[in-house]
Specification:
The complex is a heterotrimer of chains A (656), B (256) and C (113). Chain A has 656 residues and is an all-alpha fold. Chain A has helices spanning 2-5, 34-40, 44-74, 83-118, 126-145, 173-201, 214-246, 260-293, 300-313, 329-357, 366-389, 391-397, 401-431, 437-464, 480-513, 553-558, 573-576, 593-610, 615-631; strands at residues 559-561, 567-569. Chain A has 19 helices and 2 strands. The relative contact order of chain A is 0.13. Chain B has helices at residues 2-26, 51-85, 90-98, 102-112, 120-145, 149-179, 188-219, 228-254. Chain B is elongated. Chain C has 113 residues and is an all-alpha fold. The longest helix of chain C has 26 residues, at 85-110. Chain C is flat, with a radius of gyration of 20 Å. The N and C termini of chain C lie far apart (63 Å). Classes of the chains: A mainly alpha (656), B mainly alpha (256), C mainly alpha (113). Chains in contact: A-B, A-C, B-C. At the A-B interface, α1, α6, α7 and α8 of A face α1, α2, α7 and α8 of B. Bound molecules: protoporphyrin IX containing FE (HEM) and copper (II) ion.
């Protein structure tokens, strides 16, 4: 947020005074290598990779404790975890998974792919892009230091008021949760501004609205949701911050405050949030399925407009999370109906994927399997979602394991399956080699098995009445069998998920031993323009900015109708691919300031928790970083390879 | 290789087409104004808009949701505060829901002497001052895009002065209210009032810092015509903050 | 590096200052705003209550909002620039969204619907 308020934080490269360089009080790092390269990079591809890596780390970090929860519940009356520890673990598990795993993986794909799919040199504001990543990491790490500083938050991932107040949560766990997520939120917000600008304004010539790949569309909707939803969470958290740190009364019931305010604000953010987690995955499978069904996506405009519809309707359903909170009958009715309606555009998407598959020449490789996995598993989650759209029914289900089953089906079976599909699909584009198919198939089938064993039984448990967030249960309650099944399933699922890491290592070694031979530009005979450049993507993306003439432009350049109207291959992807050898492209110069600024923010955060004095150096650091940022030369002066154009961001028809 | 060559040609042709289309679409606006003494070169963008300006508008859109949430938190807290105040009196409580009994409620509030009796003339004056600063801001932008750097500095300085006066007024108001017994943590109302107006104040302060930077750069002759957009962007932010005050002034001060 | 597209981009990307209002317009706008503010304040002193007080105040507030946005923030003139409506579109969406969402919240609290 602060970055944009800063007047001089122009996009690196804005402004003409290259020659006179009046603003350049600092120099920028010159062609760094190794670690320094990664720390100062502003390249959207490297940032994308870092997002992905960090998210995978957090996946382990948040996933292993979840197995502890399952161990605790494996049998009745166990004492493995105390109630307090149990609360902290499920809270931190949910928070980490949502904010530090699913959202960043979405950001990873968006960062890497958006500029490639729209045919741009980079995102609109490369330095802000780096900042978005580092601030996410800084906030995420700060959030997790709570484990070592007195324990994590323990109020569930939504930390309802007044439970989150100082009276009921006197420890610092909630403070870390609150401030850590506030910081993470800055990253999402700047990222959203950046990516929206990129899509709106930096498409390659000819790429009209209805020629954008579905992934671009879904990410665009996602980023709009972020742009408008994050500030609502920010306000909720600021109110909590004032309550906790400065004795405010926003949620102080003793003073007559209404804690329901928190629930409203949280879910106004929260429901768009669930859609912004799933839409990028929808985008991913909408690219994968047509590629491996060898057919164009069925009903492209419907795909686009249903995505937009979801984006809008997602704002009108938040109170379905609050059916039992005592809101009035009119609200309950209205939100119930609205929630049922939102299933319609979602259903449209599922129908279109099925229709794309229908009659296609299916290639069932791992990427495709995961995509089909999303379609099936997500649909199950969607159906249970509709059952709790019906308020009376939800009154029975809410706060039971039925809800837990629902959101794991949509989030794990939906979002994460989609992302895994994307990993297998774009891995060769990013790293130059494919992931091993055989391990991949194991990866997929064991995940499906483990996943359904873990979360399937939770539907039954929930309907039997097992409450969510319960630390243990008694034999007499009759929950024992299915809990045991779920625990066994969860361990299968844990190892299954890990096997993608094993696959990465294995495939990397195989590639190295095989003489590091790259797969070439277009290993899947794919459809969109990112496959028309070499793998791994050259640093400058496109040698020549493509001009787009149709949807699935690359595919149409490979296949054309002959005189008899029969579709025929006229060229291979390798024929058409750009050689990736253009050496004189002017790229944005790296910068120290994004990481510097990002890691200054937690200093203020710790200051708010421990001692306000610490805020002073924190603010000083932030101010230094902002001025450093704006006074740094707009671009690297010594780079004489460019030709007077100081665009590190604008799409250029370079060399034409 | 020959394929690639053919391709490049294709692209060339189509690229020209696209360019022609863009040009067609703009003929009625695209006067060529020689504003670029620095060989300033703009680039093809899909919408033909400046990235920075688009980004600023997106950011301001996001700020709408932020201030919206703050304002509603204020309104709710105030309602709750009043309900709490009169909770001992069920008749009044029912009356509030029906929108009656307002004078009685006002009396009780006055009695409890926790809601400050707003000094409307004073706040009106500071609202007026902030409005005026919007005018001077826009004149600053006008000056810089006309290349009149002296006026730019004058208007920037005036804007800063007006903004600072507004802030001084807020500080004065806060201290007065505090002395009258409205503390930050005493009541729900106090918390909500200070948070909302304080948050707005923080935004004004941020704006002042930006204006200061612009002014500084301008004295060093580094804020020239080709950077007029920077001034415009700061202006957008400044006007937005002003707009928010328009809302706060009516909702917090004028509507009891 | 002079390409056709970027040459045209040059014309396009800079929304023209020629389209921005004149200084005189700004002054008139300001006077208008000042008058509106005066009326607002006066209205609040009339001793009215209920809708008679609130509705006109809200209306005047909205008008001021639109005037500042339209003239000072150039939304009105941007509309005439190529694709300038995008600014209005994004900002407008945000405003409408915020108003709708928060009014529902407020209604849910105030009248227990
Ligand atoms: C067909 C569309 C969907 C419908 C009708 C639907 C409906 C619902 C409803 C009514 C609830 C509240 C249940 C309760 O707490 O009593 C809920 C909870 C939840 N939903 Fe969905 N949902 C849908 C899709 C999704 C998607 C796509 C996601 C995420 C990717 C998602 C994630 C969640 C989460 C995380 C919760 C639990 C929140 C919590 O209490 O912790 N849902 N859903
Ligand atoms: Cu929901």
């Amino acid at each position: 947020m602060a970055i944009i308020e800063e007047p001089l934080a122009l996009p690196s490269g804005e402004g003409p005074e290259k020659a006179s360089n009046p603003m350049g009080a600092f120099s920028r790092p010159r062609k760094p290598t190794g670690l320094k390269d990664w720390l100062t990079t502003v390249d959207h591809k490297k940032i994308g990779i870092m997002y992905g890596t960090a998210a995978m780390f957090f996946l382990l970090w948040g996933g292993v404790p979840a197995l502890l929860l399952r161990l605790q519940l494996a049998r009745p009356n166990q004492g493995l975890l105390s109630g307090d520890t149990y609360n902290q673990i499920f809270t931190m598990h949910g928070t980490v998974m949502i904010f530090l795993v699913v959202m960043p993986i979405g950001a990873a794909f968006a960062n890497y792919l958006l500029p490639l799919q729209v045919g741009a040199r980079d995102v609109a504001f490369p330095r802000i892009n780096a900042f978005s990543f580092w601030v996410f990491l800084a906030g995420g790490l700060m959030l997790n230091t709570s484990w070592f500083l007195g324990g994590g938050a323990d109020g569930g991932w939504f930390n309802y008021a007044p439970n989150n107040g100082i009276t009921y949560s006197p420890g610092t766990g909630i403070d870390f949760w609150n401030i850590g997520l506030l910081i993470v939120g800055f990253g999402s917000l700047t990222g959203a501004v950046n990516l929206i600008t990129t899509v709106l304004n930096m498409r390659a010539p000819g790429m009209g609205w209805m020629r954008m790949p579905i992934f671009v569309w879904m990410t665009l909707v996602t980023q709009f949701l972020l742009l408008f939803a994050i500030p609502v969470l920010t306000v909720a958290q600021l109110l909590l911050l004032f309550d906790r740190q400065f004795d405010g009364n926003f949620f102080n019931v003793a003073q007559g405050a209404d804690p329901l305010l928190w629930q409203h604000l949280f879910w106004i953010f929260g429901h768009p949030e669930v859609y912004l987690m799933i839409l990028p995955a929808f985008g991913v499978v909408s690219e994968v399925i047509p590629t491996f069904a060898r057919k164009p996506i069925f009903g492209y405009p419907f795909m686009v407009f249903s995505g937009i519809a979801i984006g809008f309707m997602g704002w009108g359903v938040w109170a379905h999370h609050m059916f039992v909170s005592g809101i009035g009958p009119l609200s309950v009715t209205a939100f119930s109906v609205a929630t049922m309606f939102i299933a319609v555009p979602t259903g449209v998407k599922i129908l279109n994927w099925l229709a794309t598959l229908w009659g296609g020449k299916l290639i069932l490789n791992t990427a495709m399997l995961f995509a089909i996995g999303l379609v099936t598993q997500f649909t199950l989650g969607g159906v249970s979602g509709v059952t709790h759209a019906i308020a009376p029914s939800d009154t029975q289900q809410t706060d039971t394991y039925y809800i837990v089953a629902h959101f794991h089906y949509v989030l794990f079976g939906g979002a994460l399956f989609g992302f895994f599909s994307g990993f297998y699909f774009w891995w060769p584009k990013v790293f130059g080699y494919k992931l091993n198919e055989k391990i991949g198939k194991w990866n997929f089938w064991s995940m499906v098995l483990g996943f359904n064993l873990t979360f399937g039984p939770m539907h039954i448990l929930g309907l039997q009445g097992m409450p969510r967030r319960m630390q243990t249960y008694d034999v007499s309650q009759g929950f024992s069998t299915w809990n045991m099944v779920a625990t066994i399933g969860s361990f299968i699922l844990g190892f299954a998920t890990l096997s993608i890491l094993y696959n990465a290592v294995y495939s990397y070694n195989a590639w190295r031993r095989g003489g590091r031979r790259n797969v070439g530009a277009d290993p899947w005979d794919a459809r969109t323009i990112e496959w028309s450049i070499q793998s791994p993507t050259p640093e400058h993306n496109f040698d020549v900015t493509p001009t787009v003439t149709s949807l699935d432009d690359f595919w149409h350049r490979k296949y054309q109708e002959n005189d008899n109207g029969v579709l025929r291959r006229v060229a291979t992807g390798e024929d058409l691919a750009q050689p990736g050898e253009r050496g004189n492209v002017h790229l944005p110069a790296p910068s120290y300031w994004p990481i510097f600024l990002a890691f200054s923010l937690p200093v203020i955060g710790y200051g708010l928790i421990y001692s306000l004095w610490l805020c002073i150096p924190g603010i000083a650091l932030v101010m230094t970083a902002m001025y450093g940022w704006s006074l740094e030369p707009a671009d690297d002066l010594d780079d004489d390879s460019h030709h007077g154009d100081h665009d590190d961001h604008a799409t250029e028809l370079a060399g034409v | 290789m020959s394929d690639t060559d053919i391709n490049v040609e294709d692209i060339d042709a189509a690229g020209a087409d696209a360019a022609v289309a863009v040009a067609d679409a703009t003929t009625d606006h695209a006067e060529d104004h020689g504003h670029d003494d620095h060989g300033h070169e703009e680039h093809y963008t899909s919408l033909g808009l400046s990235n920075m300006k688009l980004a600023m508008w997106l950011f301001l859109g996001s700020e709408c949701l932020l201030f919206g949430a703050l304002i509603s938190a204020y309104l709710l807290s105030k309602t709750r505060f009043i309900i709490e105040l009169v909770a001992g009196n069920p008749n009044v409580l029912a009356g509030i829901r029906d929108g009656e009994n307002e004078s009685l409620v006002q009396e009780m509030i006055a009695e409890a002497s926790v809601e400050p009796i707003f000094d409307i003339p004073f706040t009106s004056l500071s609202s007026f001052i902030l409005l005026m600063s919007s005018l001077t801001m826009v004149l600053a932008h006008k000056s810089v895009s006309e290349g009149n750097y002296k006026n730019l500095r004058i208007w920037l300085a005036t804007t800063m002065l007006l903004g600072a006066t507004f802030m001084a007024g807020q500080v004065y108001e806060f201290t007065t209210f505090y002395r009258e017994g409205l503390t930050y943590n005493g009541t729900v109302f106090g918390t909500a009032f200070y948070t909302l107006t304080g948050f707005h104040g923080a935004h004004v302060t941020g704006g002042l810092i930006m204006l200061g930077s612009l002014l500084f750069l301008s004295t060093r002759n580094k804020m020239q015509k080709d950077r007029a957009e920077t001034v415009e962007l700061v202006g957008l932010y400044w006007h937005f903050v002003d707009i928010v005050w328009v809302l706060i002034f009516t909702i917090v001060y004028l509507i009891p | 590096m002079a390409t056709t597209a970027s040459d045209h981009g040059h014309d396009v990307a800079h929304d023209d200052h020629e389209h921005h209002p004149t200084a005189k317009t700004y002054w008139i706008t300001f006077v208008l705003l000042a008058i509106l503010t005066a009326v607002e304040v006066a209205w609040s002193y009339l001793g009215l209550s209920g809708p008679a007080l609130v509705v006109p105040l809200i209306l005047m507030m909205v008008v001021k909002f639109l005037i500042v946005g339209g003239v000072f923030m150039h939304l009105q003139t941007d509309l005439k620039v190529l694709n300038g409506y995008w600014f209005t579109l994004t900002f407008g969406t945000a405003v409408v969204l915020a108003v709708c969402v928060y009014i529902i919240v407020f209604a849910a609290f105030r009248w227990d619907i």
